[in-house]
Amino acid sequence: MIPLIGLLSGIVLGIVLEPSIPQALQPYLPIAIVAAMDALFGAFRAYLEGTFTDRVFVVSFISNVLIAAAIVYVGDQIGVGSQLATGVVVVLGIRIFTNAAAIRRALFHA
Amino acid sequence: MDLLNQIIRQPVDPDYALAAERGNDPSRGRWTLGVVAMVIGALFAVAALQTTRAAPALQSERAELISRVQAAEREQDELRGRVTSLTQEIATLRTAALGDDDAARGVESQINTLDPVVGNVAVTGPGVLIVVDDSPSAAADARDRVLDIDLQVLANGLWEAGAEAISINGHRLSGLTAIRSAGDAITVDYRSLTRPYRVEAIGDVRTLQARFVESSAGAWWNDLAQNRQMRYEISDVKQLDLAADPGIVLRHARRAAS
User: Fold this and answer.
1) In this predicted complex, what is the ipTM?
2) B20 at A interface, C-beta within 8 A
3) Is B58 an interface residue toward A (CB < 8 Å)?
4) Structural domain count of chain B
5) Of chain B residues 175-214, which have a CB less than 8 A from chain A?
C-alpha cells in the first residue's frame, strides 16, 4: 500500500511542482526511467514470490539507475552514447518483459 | 548469446532470494520504500511533462523554417519579376539605341529570330504536352520514382525532336537551365517541382510527337512506363503559352561599331 501511495503522490508532485531537470541531466532521464521500471517489475515479481525485501529494492533501484546513467554518460564521452543507450534499453527491456510474463503467470495463472 | 540467456533466466535480482534466506526485519525501511516509490513517480511525471512540452517547440521550429523557405521563395519570385521588367527595359533601350537604318533592322530581325529560341521571350504556339509522374508503387521502391535524369532525357529528346521552346511545370528551359535533384525533389532552375511533371514543348505538331517517340528519349520513357509503371501521357495541344526564362540575363554588351 505504501509504495502505491508513494508512486501516486510522486506523480502528482511531479506534475504540480514541475521541477526542472538540469540540461546536462536530461539525456539520462529516459534511461533512468527504464532502469526504474526494471527495478519495479523485479520488485513486484519478488513480492509475488514472497522474497521481497525493502532494502534490496531500494539498493537495486538506486544502483540500477546510477549504473544505467553512468553507462550512457561514459558512452557520450567516447562517442557511442546512443548505441550504449540502445544496449541498456534492450537488456533492461528483456528483463522487464520476462518479469512481466512471470507476474502475469503468477497473477492470472495463464 | 550466453549473456542474453543469463538475462532471461535470471531476471530478478538474486539478492532478493539471498535476503529472504537470511530473513530480515520486514518493518524496517518501510518509509524508504515509500520515498523511492515517490521518486519513481516524480521521474515518470517529469519525463512525460518534458516530452509533451518539447513537442510544440519542435513544431514551431518546423513552422518557422517553412515560413522562412516560403518568404525566400516569394523574394525570389519578386526578383524574377524584376528581372523580367528590366529585360523589357533593355529591349526598349536597345530598340531606341539601334536607330532605324538598314544595319539596325538586320540586327533587329536577328534578335527577333534568336529570342524565342534561347528562351528570352514568352512564346505561344501549338505543341505537345507530356505528363509524367512517379508510378503508384514509388513509395515502396525508390526506383519507381521519376529522377532528374529522366526529365533531362525527356527535355533533350524534345529538343532533338525539333521543339522550339520547352517548359517544365511552368519553368521555361533555356541553354542555361539546370535540371537536377535536391533532396527528394527535382529542381528546374533551382526551383523545386511538385508532381506530376507537365512538360510543354512548342514545335511543329505534325512531326514533333512522332519524332520524339522515335528518338532514344522516347524509347527511354517507353521503357519506364512499361517496366516501372510510371505515368507517361503525351498529347498534342493547339495552343501553349510558355513564359520567358527569367534566369537569362544580359552578360555582355558592346557599343555597335557605327
Assistant:
1) 0.80
2) yes
3) no
4) 1
5) none
Inside any domain, residue B188 = yes
- Give Rg (Cα) of chain A: 16
Q: Which residues contact A46 (CB under 8 A, 6 or more apart)?
A: A52, A53, A56, A57, B12, B13, B16
B contacts of A30 (beta carbons < 8 Å)? 47
B138: containing domain? 123-242
Q: How confident is the model at residue B25 (pLDDT cuts 50, 70, 90)?
A: low
pLDDT value of position B29: 60
Cβ separation A14–B12 shorter than 8 A: no
Mutation target vs B (from A23, A56, A103; most B CBs, 10 A cutoff):
A56
B49 to chain A nearest CA, in Å?
7
Tell me the HSE value of B141 on the side-chain side, using a 13 A CA sphere: 9
Q: Is the pLDDT of residue B226 over 90?
A: no
Chain A CB within 8 Å of residue B19 CB = yes
CATH number at residue B133: 3.30.70.1880
Tell me if B5 is assigned to some domain.
Answer: no
Q: Using CA coordinates, name the residue in chain A closest to B31.
A: A2
Residue B151's pLDDT band, with cuts at 50, 70 and 90, is: confident
Q: If pLDDT is split at 50, 70 and 90, which confidence band does B18 have?
A: confident
Burial class (CB in 10 A: 0-12, 13-18, 19+), B33: buried
The pTM of the whole model exceeds 0.80 = no
**Ramachandran angles phi, psi of B186, nearest 5°:** -95, 135
Q: Does B47 touch chain A (CB under 8 A)?
A: yes
